[in-house]
């Protein structure tokens, strides 16, 4: 698979929607994830990321303008032992609870499907990072409608064992802007992961469409120690 330039990919797509990137830093020492949200409606844009324990959650920037919290207020990132869960919805909790009861990542998601937001039927995208004793693997999932037909849910899981240094994968909810919004197609895109968290965060933020971007979260986890550093950038502040 050809590695794509992430900045170019984002600059050329005004509305990838929500996106998850997971990979390993170029020097091989860090497990890396990034999650961004975008919005076209006032309700979607009225959000910020805030720290919540070892993870993050979304909250309304201006509570007086919050219309329907059901699909926009959730915890995108939660940590369960040596596992870090990243998703675009409340399925973070479904995965956390499932894995806490010895289900796999894939099994935990079987009870869920795409979002009920007709006519877009936004895909649920999820990622799991497993860092233990110097080893690192990750997986990504997308649950989406059958080409816009909500009567069937198509489920795909992509697992990356012994993650390679300098490589990551990028999955997002929408192929591009549109009405209705077309779901992401194919397997996660191969992208480059740098060593510097601040540079990576700045590149992502600057590459996202200025009108539609809302918030960005980036985390670098030391594969040997499990210690991490994170960065949050909110358009509303």
TrEMBL record:
Source species taxonomy: Bacteria, Bacillati, Bacillota, Clostridia, Lachnospirales
Protein name (database record): Inosine monophosphate cyclohydrolase
Domain of life, per lineage: Bacteria
Domain Inosine monophosphate cyclohydrolase-like: 15-222
Gene3D superfamilies on file: Inosine monophosphate cyclohydrolase-like (3.60.20.20)
Organism: Blautia faecis
């Amino acid at each position: 698979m050809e590695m794509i330039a992430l900045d170019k990919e984002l600059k050329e797509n005004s509305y990838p929607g929500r996106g998850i990137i997971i990979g390993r830093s170029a020097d091989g020492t860090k497990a890396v994830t990034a999650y961004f949200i975008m919005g076209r409606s006032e309700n979607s844009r009225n959000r910020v990321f805030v720290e919540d324990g070892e993870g993050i959650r979304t909250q309304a920037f201006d509570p007086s303008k919050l219309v329907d919290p059901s699909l926009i207020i959730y915890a995108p990132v939660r940590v369960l032992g040596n596992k870090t869960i990243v998703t675009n919805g409340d399925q973070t909790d479904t995965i956390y609870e499932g894995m806490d009861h010895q289900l796999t990542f894939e099994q935990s998601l079987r009870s869920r499907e795409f979002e009920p937001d007709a006519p877009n039927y936004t895909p649920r995208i999820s990622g799991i990072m497993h860092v233990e004793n110097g080893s690192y693997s990750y997986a990504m999932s997308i649950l989406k409608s059958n080409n816009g037909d909500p009567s069937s849910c198509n489920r795909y899981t992509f697992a990356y064992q012994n993650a390679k240094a300098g490589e990551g994968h990028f999955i997002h909810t929408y192929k591009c802007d549109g009405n209705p919004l077309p779901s992401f197609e194919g397997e996660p895109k191969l992208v480059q992961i740098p060593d510097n968290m601040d540079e990576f965060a700045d590149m992502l933020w600057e590459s996202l469409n200025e009108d539609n971007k809302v918030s960005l979260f980036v985390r670098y986890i030391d594969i040997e120690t499990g210690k991490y550093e994170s960065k949050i950038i909110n358009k509303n502040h």
